[in-house]
Amino acid sequence: MVGTLGIALGAFLTLVVVGLHFAQGTEYPTPDDISQQVIEQRAESVPETDFPEPMNRSIGGGGVAAGAVGEGETEGELAGSEAEVDDDPAAIPDDEAESFDVEFVKEGETIEVKENTTLLEAGEESDWDLPYACRQGQCVSCAGHITDGGNAEQYVEHHTQEMLGETELDDGYTLTCVAYPTDDLTLESRETP
Ligand code: FES
Predict the structure, then answer these.
(1) Which of 12, 39, 50, 79 sits at 20 to 30 Å (Cα–Cα) from 177?
(2) CA gap 85, 65 in Å, rounded
């Protein structure tokens, strides 16, 4: 009796499983992609701004896209970056660059250095083995001493130097890798503050 009931139950369950396997499921409608709709709604809800905003608020206003920035500001930014380029003495064209007499005391020679050339580059062009490391004004490997008296920046323009404080500059120290001459000067190379 129990065996018959078991077989019947097994057969029934098998039929149910087979039936479910072949049954067509109810069709679940896949929603359309609503991401574009969400973006558009978000764009409408965020007010237009006339300045760049962080990326997470860039939809509909601001952002780094050029179109979101006011025309005047775009011009202003361009003018600013051009001004930065102009600040770099290395950008002065060769035929417009003024030259200055630089006496390299330890090397025993006075050479002409253009205002678009660093003291380090000028020394290297003369085949002197001058010390350097970063070449970006961020260490003191290339330091030298301007011995004409007064602040070093009376004689050179430092482009991007970050190591010398006012006291060192007042004492005449310079970082030759970023020092462009603005006057005649006397330099002792290999002199650190
Ligand atoms: S080489 Fe580093 S500051 Fe000049």
Answers:
(1) 79
(2) 23
